[in-house]
Amino acid sequence: MDLLKWAPIVTGIVAIYAAVLSTYNLVASRLDRAHKLRVSLKWGMVAPGPEPETVLILEAINPRGRSVTVAACALVLPNRKALVIPHPVVGSAQLPHELVEGTNCRILFPLRDVVVALQGEGFTGQIALRALFRDALGNEYLSKKFKGDLREWASVAADGTSPSTA
């Protein structure tokens, strides 16, 4: 008789456990198949000619999952406008660019072009930029903020010295 009282309770517990496990498996499989890029923005120096040039490196990494086709990249300005450099430095990846699992691509923006564009938009002093990558499906991926002083960047772009990191 006691067994008949417990049967619906045990059945309910098993049903709840099965529902939780099923939901977990569904979420885990979707995350595994999801498109996901890690994006960063940092300094760099390249030597495309006789003199080294300071650049901003926009990097996208596909750490796991399905391949992702990177269709566009830009710098996001503090006023939320996107700055696209029409002619990145030689050595940059050509877009569109397919990133399979575990690969990356780098786009190199000359610092002097970025400084001219920022000054043209009226920016001075402290500034924060973010790298933006857009995939072929329209998903956008942003880097953390990259902060610095535009006056220092202009000086670096003019004389080619190494910038201080923010």
Secondary structure layout:
Elements: H1 2-33, E1 38-46, E2 53-62, E3 68-76, E4 82-83, E5 97-99, E6 103-110, H2 111-120, E7 126-135, E8 140-142, E9 146-149, H3 150-159
Antiparallel strand pairs: 1-2, 2-6, 3-4, 3-5, 3-7, 7-8, 7-9
Question: What is the compact description of this entry?
Answer:
This protein is an alpha+beta fold and 166 residues long.
Helicity level, as a percent range? 25-40%
Number of separate strands: 9
CATH fold-level assignment of the largest domain: Immunoglobulin-like
Strand content: 25-35%
**How many structural domains are formed by the residues?**
2
Quick one: overall form? elongated
The residue-averaged pLDDT reads: 86
Poorly predicted regions are none
Question: How would you classify the helix and strand content by structural class?
Answer: alpha+beta
CATH C-level category of the largest domain: Mainly Beta
End-to-end distance: 73 Å
Cα radius of gyration in angstroms: 24 Å
**H/E series:** HEEEEEEHEEEH
Number of separate helices: 3
CATH architecture of the largest domain: Sandwich
Main sheet properties: 6 strands, antiparallel
